[in-house]
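Lab notebook, page 48
Experiment: co-folding of the full assembly
Goal: obtain a model of how the components sit together before planning crosslinking
Operator: M.T.
Materials (sequences as entered):
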Amino acid sequence: MTHRFRVLALLLTATVAQVTVFDEVRVAGASVEYLLLVSVLAGYHGGPERGAVVAFFAGLLHDAVTVTPMGLHALVYPSLAVATSHLEVRLARFTRPFLGSGLAIAIAGGVLAAAAVGSLFGLRELGDPGLLRTTVVVVVMTVAVAPPTSRAVRWAVTGGLPVDVDLRGQGAEGGG
Amino acid sequence: MVAVPRPAGRSRPTLLLLVAAALTLLTLHFRGAEPLSAFQQGIRDVLDPVRSASERVARPVQSAWHGLFDYDDLRAENERLADELARMRGRRLTGEADKELLERLLGEVDIDYTTLETVVVRILGTPPGNFSSYSLEVDKGQDDGLEEGMAVVTGAGLVGRLEVVDRSRSIVRLATHPEFRMGVRLVGSQDEGLARGGGATGRLVIDAGIRLDAVVKAGEVVVTSGGRSRFPADIPVGRVSDPDDDAEFDRQIIVDPEASLENLSFLNVVLDPVRFDIEPSRRR
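Observation: model returned without errors.
Model output:
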């Protein structure tokens, strides 16, 4: 299976999971942001360029299934993937808990950035008192499903093609 | 082992290209580009059977979960309903008087709200994602004759409008959504204005169209104005809770919605009578 088919399979599976399993499991009205997680991990494992492209298509799929304006999440996710990728270079030697915290911050940043862009289009009030609570719940739930997802994303974005980084520290290897 | 720094230079043009593409898509979306909507709807329609299957599988699990962990809530809800029933019995006469008053007020302007053609829809819950404040997903769509913009009501009045209509599902934007706008008429004073959703307050705000010197009373019934609005005229919206009599510049009349979604499972979508006069074959 080529790299592109792996990424396609990853994105389609993630989209189906987003609107089925993760949509049914809601805590305080919030659900896992699975496509955001895939975008962040794509940047982490695949590097800035590949991560940004995967994140862009993840964002488009997210826009399609969540009925947000086409391009909203596709605008936010690539930047996040690139930022994660650059941070990953600096965090390569850190431990799993530290990387988990970094992932939590990235997810929170993604949710808040999407909310900020969405507020420009009247989708959500930035002053909404529920936004902070939603963000916290989303972060906790999303980070909880990160370990298996990390392996799947690494398989998809690095498989079959040379990667930008060929040497990784132990902390980065198991991270996510 | 340590990570080798990656060449960052190549990612910048890629990122700029993707951001430009996203902004272009957003621009096209807000200009109403049909292919984009069709693409989005197509994906949702393809996923619809999977979602329905997932909901069927999840329903017993959710019921069991609520039974196990929300027992106290269920008991409290049961007690609340029992109390409410007792109160309703006690207030039946008052309710009849209120109903008479409402009917009298609505009768003054030939309101025929109850005879509107509607389709009953079941509430499925909140739409996918975390951007669904003030929105609901319902179980009928284009296949049932629904179209974007149609009014959604309960027996008590307006709830919102259909924002997105797929083949077999739709999303309702609630009237309390901050971006919700509709023309309204005050039944007592006959003044017409523009109301918007009050967001987290759960109320509506009439902030345009009402004269500063118009006499508006607390408790006055507010209905949709019709006219150029997409909603049929004279659907009850709510009652004035604060007429803002003291306003000197911007008058903001606060309206409490009549329709409550608490404990509701079904809604009615008002079909457009003009369209169905023209296309009776599409009616179901």
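Interpretation: Chain A has one domain: 3-156.
Next step: discuss with group before ordering constructs.
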